[in-house]
Amino acid sequence: MIFSSPIHAFAWLSSTLDSSQVLNLLTQPFASDNDFRASDFDVDPKSGFFPPAPLPRLPAEFCIWETALATAPGVLALGKDRSEEALSRRSDGAWWRSTIRSWPVKDVSILREDIRLLQRAHMVLASLMHYYVHSLPPTDTALIVPKSIAIPLVEVSRVLGIAPVLTFADTVLWNWELVDPALPVSADNMRYLTTFSGTDTERGFYLASAAVELKGVEMLDIFNRFQSLPRSSYTDAHAIAQLARDLNQLANVIDGLTEIFKSMRETVDPHDFYWVVRPWWAGATSKGPNHPGWVLEGVPNGDSAHFDLGGASAGQSSVMHALDVFLDIDHRLASHRTPAPTERNRHADLGFMQRMWRYMPGKHREYLTRLRSVRPVAERTPGLREPYNAAVAALKKLRDFHIRIVAIYVVTKADSTPPERFAPEGGDDAEGTQKDGPARGTGGSEVSNLLKAGRDATNRALLQD
Ligand code: HEM
């Protein structure tokens, strides 16, 4: 079988093997990684998983997409929003959606050779899809994504190797411009373009996520150094001393991430986050198994049984996953480590983290696949055990803090009464107003359980004496 790219090979493997078999195949040790260059995986030495510069706008043939995206914030509101302002937008919103339905299906083949245009097309189309679906009035029937969006989005996603839905990449990595183009990429110098809710909370969330990604560049340097270390040098005193320094530095960088998470309390408002922002990111499955979900019109088998349509989450941040790969955090509970997983750990969604890989750009997923873990080396090298454990302990502390954030921003909100403007009409909860997202159904315990299982898996990576 001949594949036009590693992503096509990955897609084929994924369709024929189960995900753990694919991972095993792809993570077998390489004889040498001297040929490992982060740039081959669209990872930039300065901006990491961000493109090195803001994405260019699409060529003129696609200006209807760009224009519809620019118009959307002024005419649309969440379909379930019954505030005066939202109600006043309903007729304009219906017009906006009917325009999208009337569009021709555009051929995207001219974008194929330019990764930046493909990324821009994904960001624009996935944003249009979420604007379209979430501005519709609540319904218990399947939501049809018009073919004018669905078909090109699926095509562009195939080439990029990413899910055909709004992802972390669309909202955070590909959705900004520079405040001052003469200055380098930094969280202080970025302005976010599409904010569905138009709130400072949404901007604050994207900016904090951007700060995490950019801080992560320091980690990527450490990972890349380890990656290019010849295996023969794992016993070399000089190389081990450098690795120990790198692991201690990694612990500092992770502490820096925790500080960024803490800063979100100032910039991200829990009420707005839960009720006004997060609903825009939800995917086809967020209303639970009883809702018929979304149908991608004109796409064969265009539903969530055949496509990854889960929606956007910071759980798709490649930087965070790279950290897990490097430290070998066993989210799937595949290794025998202590302390043994609790009953609740075992009942958590153990496939979640691996599923999130499918929502990353294919090249970033390839990067993760090639990344080696430092744990086996730390395990057999006395001088590395402490620095390795320091990095793991810092990551556990980060996850502890993240759990506290999620308790405030999601779990308690999921248990609370919706504000008047979002209360289901006629008191019926068919739309699942209180039950969007993973907190659905069990008053937040699904989300808490997932995150606690991740924290405990992190703790279990600590090397014992
Ligand atoms: C107000 C701040 C935040 C809230 C309320 C929040 C909420 C959540 C929730 C509810 C989940 C569960 C999965 C899901 O619903 O998608 C999750 C998972 C996750 N989030 Fe956050 N998040 C926040 C900030 C961040 C930031 C800034 C990052 C990093 C860029 C991040 C990275 C992750 C990761 C990697 C996971 C997967 C689980 C894990 O690694 O423990 N989160 N988050």
TrEMBL record:
One Pfam family in the UniProt entry: IDO
Region (Disordered): 417-465
Binding site for heme b: H402
Gene Ontology MF term list: heme binding; indoleamine 2,3-dioxygenase activity; metal ion binding
Gene Ontology CC, one term: cytoplasm
Keywords: Heme, Iron, Metal-binding
Domain of life from the UniProt record: Eukaryota
InterPro entries (alphabetical): Indolamine_dOase (IPR000898), Trp/Indoleamine_2_3_dOase-like (IPR037217)
GO biological process: 'de novo' NAD+ biosynthetic process from L-tryptophan; L-tryptophan catabolic process to kynurenine
Family: Belongs to the indoleamine 2,3-dioxygenase family.
Protein name: Indoleamine 2,3-dioxygenase
Origin species: Rhodofomes roseus
